[in-house]
Amino acid sequence: MTTAKDIMHAGAAWIPDGVMLDRAAELMRELGVGALPVSDDHERLCGILTDRDIVVGCVALGRDPSRVTAGELTRGTPRWIDADAGVDRVLREMIDHRVRRLPVMEGERMVGMISEADLARHLSGEEVGEWAARIYAGSDD
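The chain above was modelled as a monomer; its predicted structure follows.
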């Protein structure tokens, strides 16, 4: 059985919720990613910050990204998947919660991230097409 760990991008970085958005954006650029998981004071996953969050939730509102923290833009219950979960479960989690990126956890430790690119590399065209149709249905992105 193919698992989340088999298809994830290993070594994903995360940031504390007190990091300012300008620094988070710099880190995204340095790492070549569009999202970073965010941890709370107890190093628990508390959300995911995307480049779109920074633009829409800060810059477009005229706010200064050097004065807004990552924690101010994270909301809701973060979704994640166990490293041993099968790909069917990964797809179901992403579709059910309409998320495009999914942290992969082993115990309390994040070991990677699954993104659209990871799905495209590891799944059939039919599987990726079905996932995309369901994720983007009714999306305003």
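The two ends are 33 Å apart (CA to CA).
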